[in-house]
Amino acid sequence: MNITIGTTNKAKTEAVEVIARKYFDNPNFTYVKASSQVSDQPMTQEETRLGAINRSKNAIKETGAQFSFGLEGGVTEIDGVMYVCNWGALTVSDGKTYTAAGAQIILPEEIAQEIRAGKELGPVMERYTQRRDIRQGAGAVGVFTQGLVSRQMMFEHIVSLLIGQYLFTIAHD
Ligand SMILES: O=P(O)(O)OP(=O)(O)OP(=O)(O)OC[C@H]1O[C@@H](n2cnc3c(O)ncnc32)[C@H](O)[C@@H]1O
Ligand SMILES: [Mg+2]
């Protein structure tokens, strides 16, 4: 079973591996830095979702795997409050693409202001926490939930939603 993941970010690759191992026999994982074809800092749900879809489609084109996962993070605003938002896509070699979204939490206003000014959350988080590579580990979600929910855990939930929808479809075909 060949499974490709459209990134090398650890929080995402570990999430796919942990969940896919539960439901697929002998999975063999490959990673490609697939293009999301959206901005580095997606600013809406629509853009973030599209980034996930593009990553999974571009990665499957490159590798010819049976299953391809694209995971994308972004931000969204509701009533002037900025939330991190996360989307995932699973493209299957038959051409079907499944999508699902994950948890959303509020970003502190001082961080939201920097994002609105055009900065990317990754470097902003590194400055805020004085730690490097947060995005591959706890992520903003881990930092602002006091470690209760890591970025990997959040992506694991999305991957479960994607694989679950695929399993539902093949069970009812
Ligand atoms: O290598 P890739 O796969 O691109 O991994 P990435 O960490 O850059 O991740 P994304 O491009 O998917 O998304 C960046 C977005 O992820 C969200 N995010 C959440 N926690 C983050 C963190 O600690 N650092 C950076 N981005 C984070 C945030 O909404 C950013 O806009
Ligand atoms: Mg990125």
Automatic annotation (TrEMBL):
It holds the Pfam family NTPase_I-T. SUPFAM superfamilies: ITPase-like (SSF52972). NCBIfam families: PRK03114.1 (NF002850). Its cofactor is Mn(2+); Mg(2+). This is inosine/xanthosine triphosphatase. Residues 6-161 form the Non-canonical purine NTP phosphatase/PRRC1 domain. Its EC number is 3.6.1.73. It catalyses: ITP + H2O = IDP + phosphate + H(+); XTP + H2O = XDP + phosphate + H(+). It comes from Lysinibacillus xylanilyticus.
